[in-house]
């Protein structure tokens, strides 16, 4: 049941991104990511370092993901309001995750994108996906194999703090990490 909900969220994100793309003057996002399928290794890392889109992994069966044993390494990464750029304060966290993944070749990472309650559900699902993809792109830039990183957006649906304050909203604008069960 949870797996179906995850698949439904991913499908909604894709349609949300397609809707946002329809309003833009310049096409990018999923279109350019699909164009990059087939890129590997150094090409992926170079593209990530330039801030370019990274191809999404196609097909394959995803296993189960759980909370990591070490919450200090996998601390949430936070975002400014209506933004999806990785902040300099969070780069050290992502470097730690990259190093950990380098030592655990058999582990996959799930990056969850979350938003605060402001904005429509569709917009927040798209923004959550952009946040998850920004983290994925940053990790690939650090040398993590792109095929080890999966993304999902929950938009505003899994808030950490249900209060209606700036403090609560800043906690909820995050990327959260899960690791695959071995």
What keyword list fits this structure?
alpha+beta
Description:
With 182 residues, the protein is an alpha+beta fold. Helices cover 43% and strands 13% of the residues. It has six helices and five strands, in the order αααββαβαβαβ. The chain has helices at 2-23, 30-35, 41-49, 91-103, 121-141, 166-172, and strands spanning 65-66, 77-78, 109-114, 149-155, 174-180. Strands 1, 2, 3, 4 and 5 form a five-stranded mixed sheet that branches. Strand 3 (109-114), helix 5 (121-141) and strand 4 (149-155) form a beta-alpha-beta unit. Helix 1 (2-23) crosses helix 5. The protein is globular. The relative contact order is 0.19. Residues 17-39 have low confidence and may be disordered.
Summarize this, please?
The chain has 182 residues and is an alpha+beta fold.
List the helices and strands and how they pair.
Blueprint (H helix, E strand, L loop, with lengths): L1 H22 L6 H6 L5 H9 L15 E2 L10 E2 L12 H13 L5 E6 L6 H21 L7 E7 L10 H7 L1 E7 L2
Parallel strand pairs: 3-4
Antiparallel strand pairs: 1-5, 2-5, 3-5
Beta-strand level of the residues, as a percent range? 5-15%
- Treating each run of at least 4 consecutive H or I residues as one helix, how many helices? 6
Give the ordered list of helices and strands: HHHEEHEHEHE
Please provide the count of β strands: 5
Helix-strand makeup class:
alpha+beta
Percentage of residues assigned to helices: 40-55%
Ranges where pLDDT stays below 50 over 5 or more residues in a row are 17-39
Mean pLDDT: 79
| Terminal CA distance | 21 Å
Report the biggest beta sheet as strand number plus sense, adding barrel if it closes: 5 strands, mixed
Query: Could you say which overall geometry the principal axes of the C-alpha atoms support?
Result: globular
């Amino acid at each position: 049941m949870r797996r179906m909900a995850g698949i439904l969220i991913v499908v909604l994100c894709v349609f949300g991104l397609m809707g946002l793309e329809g309003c833009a003057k310049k096409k990018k996002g999923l279109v350019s990511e699909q164009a990059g399928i087939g890129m590997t290794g150094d090409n992926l890392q170079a593209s990530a370092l330039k801030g370019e889109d990274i191809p999404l992994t196609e097909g394959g069966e995803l296993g189960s993901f759980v909370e990591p044993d070490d919450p200090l390494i996998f601390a949430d990464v936070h975002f400014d309001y209506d933004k999806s750029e990785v902040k300099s304060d969070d780069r050290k966290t992502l470097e730690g995750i990259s190093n950990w993944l380098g030592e655990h070749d058999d582990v996959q990472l799930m990056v969850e994108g979350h938003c605060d309650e402001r904005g429509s559900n569709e917009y927040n699902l798209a923004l959550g996906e952009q946040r998850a993809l920004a983290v994925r792109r940053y990790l690939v830039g650090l040398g993590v194999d792109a095929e080890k990183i999966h993304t999902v957006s929950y938009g505003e649906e899994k808030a950490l703090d249900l209060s209606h304050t700036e403090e609560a909203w800043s906690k909820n604008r995050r990327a959260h990490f899960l690791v695959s069960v071995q």
